[in-house]
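About this split. The held-out portion is used to measure sequence recovery: a designer receives only the structure tokens and must propose an amino acid at every position. Recovery is the fraction of positions where the proposal matches the reference. Here is one held-out target exactly as it appears in the evaluation file.
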């Protein structure tokens, strides 16, 4: 290659193959070598490459909308948690049991769950990655401003207990974050209400009366009512409190 007193900048791109032998990490170095021109040396630039690896491929395996979502509007806590489980965790995900235990734990702390989504990535060879997203009314003990992380230890405990009830053993907590957002009432109350059983109707009436600060009906009175009577009473509350859908 002949000597040249001047250099011309020539923008270009180059593909750098990354194999599985290189672990994800930060601050990898880069150097360049021109095989046909050894005199140019091997200029090196340090700490300029981050290798992040392939992102997980999550599949939605559960989406539960709780009854309270059809009447509630206001501040909520949105929690996103990702976990690794061991390869011996049961492959059958028990959605109803998980949702029920999650609701029990949230209610025990003064909140009401509104929605939960569970995603799974089974591509790793020796483990399974889970991502769980929970929307709930604010639970006790946390002051928060919109968009600010709150109450992480409480939510970690709630989710771990709900996972344990369905024999999902967490071997590593990858991340958990809770922020405060504004929730708008879930539409479609009239479509889902006919499928609710007596136990759910009693609980929904209690929630509705408390939420709208109505006189509380004794539990004994509600339990003596038939499903049809409970559904009619819940319809009456909805007509008086829930704005008609446009």
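Reference sequence for scoring:
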């Amino acid at each position: 290659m002949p000597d040249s007193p001047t250099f011309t900048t020539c923008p270009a791109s180059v593909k750098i193959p990354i194999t599985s032998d290189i672990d994800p990490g930060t601050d990898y170095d880069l150097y360049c070598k021109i095989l046909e021109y050894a005199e140019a040396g091997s200029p090196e630039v340090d700490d300029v490459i981050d290798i992040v690896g392939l992102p997980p491929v999550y599949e939605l395996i559960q989406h539960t909308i709780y009854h309270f979502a059809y009447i509630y509007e206001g501040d909520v806590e949105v929690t996103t948690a990702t976990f690794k489980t061991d390869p011996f965790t049961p492959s059958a995900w028990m959605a109803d049991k998980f949702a029920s235990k999650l609701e029990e734990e949230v209610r025990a702390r003064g909140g009401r769950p509104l929605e939960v989504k569970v995603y799974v990535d089974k591509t790793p060879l020796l483990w399974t990655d889970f991502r769980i997203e929970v929307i709930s009314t604010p639970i006790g003990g946390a002051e928060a401003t919109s968009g600010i992380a709150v109450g992480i230890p409480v939510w970690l405990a709630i989710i771990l207990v709900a996972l344990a009830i369905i024999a999902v053993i967490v071997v590593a907590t990858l991340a958990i974050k809770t922020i405060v957002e504004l929730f708008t009432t879930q539409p479609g109350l009239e479509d889902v209400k006919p499928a609710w059983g007596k136990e759910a109707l009693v609980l929904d009436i209690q929630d509705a009366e408390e939420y709208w600060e109505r006189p509380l009906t004794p539990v004994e009175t509600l339990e003596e009512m038939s499903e049809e009577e409970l559904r009619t009473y819940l319809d009456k509350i909805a007509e008086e409190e829930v704005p008609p859908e446009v």
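Annotator remark: The radius of gyration is 27 Å.
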